Amino acid sequence: MDYPKSILGLIDNFSSLPGIGKKTAERLALHIYSNMNKDDIEVFAKNLVNVKSNLHPCKVCGNLTEEELCPICMDETRDKSQVMVVENIKDLFVIEKLEVFHGIYHVLGGAIDFSNGIGVEDIDIPHLIERVKQGEIKELILACNATLEGETTARYIKSLLEDYDIKITRIAHGLPVGGDIAYADQTTVLKALEGRRNY
Amino acid sequence: MDYPKSILGLIDNFSSLPGIGKKTAERLALHIYSNMNKDDIEVFAKNLVNVKSNLHPCKVCGNLTEEELCPICMDETRDKSQVMVVENIKDLFVIEKLEVFHGIYHVLGGAIDFSNGIGVEDIDIPHLIERVKQGEIKELILACNATLEGETTARYIKSLLEDYDIKITRIAHGLPVGGDIAYADQTTVLKALEGRRNY
Questions:
Q1: Interchain contact, A52 vs B41, CB within 8 Å
Q2: Residues A81 and A158 in one domain
Q3: Across the interface, do A47 and B10 touch by the CB < 8 Å criterion?
Q4: Over the stretch B120-148, which tens digit does the pLDDT of each residue have?
């Protein structure tokens, strides 16, 4: 006998998430059934749906927001002349938690990865170029990951912007080569940020 | 800046699950937002709620079911004289997947664990005794885990049933001492089952 179908569906949902295998998915689904009360489960279900319906990308930078612009872009105290270019929203929040960067962001939504069919048109570079053309940006900090894909993306962006009068920097290789920003400890990210160089 | 509140709620939900830390919860919540479509998320949310509303314990054995009795208790071909006593539903499904046991079950819903305040009244022993009293059961296979708690529970059940004319067996220590059935490989569980002895 297999699990009843009400729980099989939930096991499938959990095991479709990254890093969650079949055994963990079973454990989580049974935990929901055995250890959570009806109200908490309903809140969980509501939060799942809300994450998609309430949130969308900020019109300026691509960060998550419930409004038209994200709180960072709306914040008058942030330095709009300094833009940090990150691959993903998660990287943005890693940087934000350090509380040392007072500029604004540009979220690419990925990195160029030819071996997986992700080309220059699949990430949000056009909008970045447009932002640079508006003339307010003085420094672009390329905080793509220290991976082949991140490096390729950084170089491609640099090549597109050579004729513009802006400083382009790259966060230092404080990050271990091949490492993801999202998995680095805060000190490493901090060092990488401090040691950024002209690119 | 922290995450918007729509996603913070979901991060909290994920990190309340066993074995899921803050970083993993963030990764999962962002995966839901970035990589899942609205329909799939709604199915996930519906499955979460259904697991609690559609399922309940089988009136006889405590297994998960969508009906009054579970498919195992309703199955005419299963041997009702042989009852396997397991701590949790998960253990029941581990045994079921082996497809070697043709009796029925009794799910205790835990094990006696005095150090965590789980006493004899917190697990479903009274109902087991009642089932034995009905006289149909000839063998009780105690398949509690090979932990201190499982062993304590097995011995307690054995002590309560000494005056009844039934065979009480305990699955063999093929399980590594201190091991959970739910994490053992199938061969180990199979060996443990084959080597069960009078208790």
A1: yes
A2: yes
A3: yes
A4: 888 999 999 999 999 999 999 999 887 88
Residues A36 and A116 in one domain: no
CA of B87: how far to CAs of B51, B113, B129, in Å? 20, 12, 15
Alpha carbon of B26: minimum distance to chain A alpha carbons (Å): 8
Residues of B in contact with A71 (CB under 8 A): 1, 4
Q: Which residues of A52-65 are buried (b: 16+ CB within 10 A; e: fewer)?
A: bebbebbebbbbbb
Question: Which of B17, B20, B71 is nearest residue A1 as measured by Cβ atoms?
Answer: B71
Q: Does residue B88 sit in the same domain as residue B28?
A: no
Together in a domain, A121 and A168: yes
Residue B59 inside a domain? The answer is no
Q: Would you call A188 helix, strand, or coil by DSSP?
A: helix
Distance from CA of A151 to the nearest CA of B (A): 23
Q: What is the pLDDT of residues A18-57, one digit of tens each?
A: 999 999 999 999 999 988 999 999 999 999 999 989 999 9
Please give, rounded to a whole number of angstroms, the shortest distance from the CA of B119 to a CA of chain A.
18
Here the CATH number for the domain that contains residue B21 is: 1.10.8.420
Interface A-B, measured as beta-carbon pairs within 8 A, has a size of: 158
- Our count of domains for chain B comes to 2
ipTM: 0.76
Burial B180-197 (b: 16+ CB within 10 A, else e): bbbebeeeebebbbeebe
Range of the domain at A37: 5-54
Do B116 and B167 sit in the same domain of this protein? Answer: yes
Residues A84 and A159 in one domain: yes
Q: Is residue B61 part of a domain?
A: no
Which of A42, A46, A51 is opposite residue B29, by nearest beta carbon?
A51
* B62: DSSP letter: -
Closest chain B C-alpha to A63 CA, distance in angstroms? 10
Contact check, Cβ <8 Å, A64/B5: no
β-strand B139-142 against B167-170: which pairing, if any?
A: parallel
Tokens of A84: 């940090």
Determine whether the interchain pair B55/A93 forms a contact, defined as Cβ–Cβ distance below 8 Å. no
CATH of the domain at B87: 3.40.1360.10
**Would residue B36 count as lying in a domain?**
yes
The structure's pTM equals: 0.75
Tens of pLDDT, residues A92-149? 988 888 888 999 999 999 999 999 998 888 899 999 999 999 999 999 999 988 788 9
CB–CB of B3 and A93 under 8 A?
yes
